[in-house]
Amino acid sequence: MADIIPFITFFNFILTQRIVELLIAKRNEKWMKDQGAIEFGREHYHYLVWMHMFFLISLCMEKLLFNRELSSYWPFLLLIFFMAQIIRFWVIFSLGKYWNTKIIVLPFANVIRKGPYRYIKHPNYFIVSIELIVVPLLFGAFITAAVFTILNLIIMSIRVPAEEAALKNLTEYDGTFKSCNRFLPKIVK
């Protein structure tokens, strides 16, 4: 357990980051709803929240109960994590007041196609998927990585179509993103 201090530091970073993101999302939700935005996906949102909460609990439990060690690939995994954070901040800044953890759509608003949205439709979900694998692997929590990757795939199979349907119904989403893939950039031939 020589790596407990790095784990606690890393865990606190992630926890603080999530709390700050929720505060930003709440502020943006108020602004959007004041502008006439409509919320979608309420029926599945709580599953998303629970998944993220249990991810953090599972990460701690597996690390501490099974005495998981820091991966020997930690420099590489940490690099991937920090690259993902750069893209996460890029996503939040690109969407500005439109960024949220909920599906909230302002009817007839211009669809954002800047930042990472120039390349893929859902960069935030891509980043979360990377984190759900990389963070547990960084600390040897293989069970957490496997379980929450599967849970995330299940939730995203519901959430992404719901978000896209809402955007298609209320904005020019289809026209804006006709040349984009959901999660990976198109390879130019």
Describe the structure.
- This protein is mainly alpha-helical and 189 residues long.
- It has one domain: Four Helix Bundle (Hemerythrin (Met), subunit A) (Up-down Bundle), CATH 1.20.120.
- The protein contains six helices and two strands.
- It has a two-stranded antiparallel ribbon.
- The longest helix is centred in the N-terminal third of the chain and has 31 residues, at 4-34.
- It is elongated, with a radius of gyration of 18 Å.
- It is found in: Membrane.
- The chain crosses the membrane at residues 6-24, 72-93, 125-151.
- This is Methyltransferase.
- Keywords: Membrane, Methyltransferase, Transferase, Transmembrane, Transmembrane helix.
- It comes from Neobacillus ginsengisoli.
Q: Topology of this protein?
A:
Layout: H1 4-34, E1 38-40, H2 42-65, H3 74-95, E2 103-105, H4 123-138, H5 142-170, H6 173-176
Antiparallel strand pairs: 1-2
Helix pairs in contact: 2-5, 3-4, 4-5
CATH-defined fold name? Four Helix Bundle (Hemerythrin (Met), subunit A)
What structural class results from the helix and strand content?
A: mainly alpha
Number of domains: 1
N- to C-terminal separation? 49 Å
Q: What level of helicity do the residues show? A: 55-70%
Strand residues, percent: under 5%
Shape: elongated
The top level CATH class name: Mainly Alpha
List the total number of helices.
Answer: 6
At CATH's second level, what is the architecture?
Answer: Up-down Bundle
Residue runs with pLDDT of under 50 for 5 or more positions:
none
Number of strands: 2
Please give the order of strands in the largest beta sheet.
Answer: 1-2
Overall average residue pLDDT: 93
What string, H for helix and E for strand, traces the elements in order? HEHHEHHH
Radius of gyration from the alpha-carbon trace, in angstroms: 18 Å
Main sheet attributes: strand count, strand direction, barrel closure: 2 strands, antiparallel
GO molecular function: methyltransferase activity
Subcellular location: Membrane
Membrane topology: Multi-pass membrane protein
Pfam families: ICMT
